[in-house]
Amino acid sequence: MPVPSSRSDRPTSGRADDLATEDPAVIDACPRLDTADNFRDLAGPGPGYAAPGGRVRRGVLYRSNRLELSEEDIASLVPLRIAAVHDLREVYEIDRHPNVELAGARALSHVVPGIEPDDLRRLDSVEATERAMTEHYRGFAAEPRKCAGFASALGAIVGGLRASGGPQVFHCSAGKDRTGWLGAMIHTAIGVSWDDVQADFLLTDERTTRSRGVNLASIEAVLGPQMALILEPAFHCSLDQLEVARAEAVRLYGGLDRYLSEGLGLSRDDLEVLRNRLVA
User: Fold this and answer.
1) Which end of the chain is flanked by fewer CB atoms within 10 Å, N or C?
2) Could you tell me what percentage of the chain is helix, strand and coil, using 3-state DSSP and rounding each to the nearest 5?
3) Whether residue 7 has pLDDT greater than 60
């Protein structure tokens, strides 16, 4: 897959109007996809989450689970004019479940390590799964490889916004953990309240009933019903785990602002681009 360009190569011109899906009717009716049930607008439901200076602009950034899409769902995305797809998964995840190609969209890879399959298979209780997920979230702030992947994705997203390159989507496998944290940090960067950040994070549980059932059925078929029960907490959102990641970022960096700047490499100019392009 192509890799994002360095920040120094990114153009600074372009109109905000070029960033979003053109048709307001299309923006207001963000499609519900059967084969990617966590595909949604980062602006949130309704008019968009409140942020200093207005509300989060719809039709600019989307978030999703993996894009193994049916022909019908591919057709549903055409009016959105997606220009870039940012994949946070590891290589083995992509090999097992490749995305479809969206016409006109660049496919960019930003590896944020997940929990290794062998480590998942060794979990022997619900409590062990919850501990593993908690450490996974702690790593969003503490593990250099995870921070590097988030920094790469965030830098490329900002580059697309700066260049007025059209709507973008970012995703991982379930669109819950890695995608949830990146979405939370983008919201935080533009001033969305933490209450709304948490609400957006929890929307995944509402959206992913179908895919969660499919994944757990697959685990049960391969590893047995007991393992499906043990791993089920990994398929639900936990505000406690989100708080662990936030608290770790604060502990290591002194605050989320410094985590964004020092941990994820977001400059003042990048912040200005995010706020100018995403809030209206």
Assistant:
1) N
2) 55, 10, 35
3) no
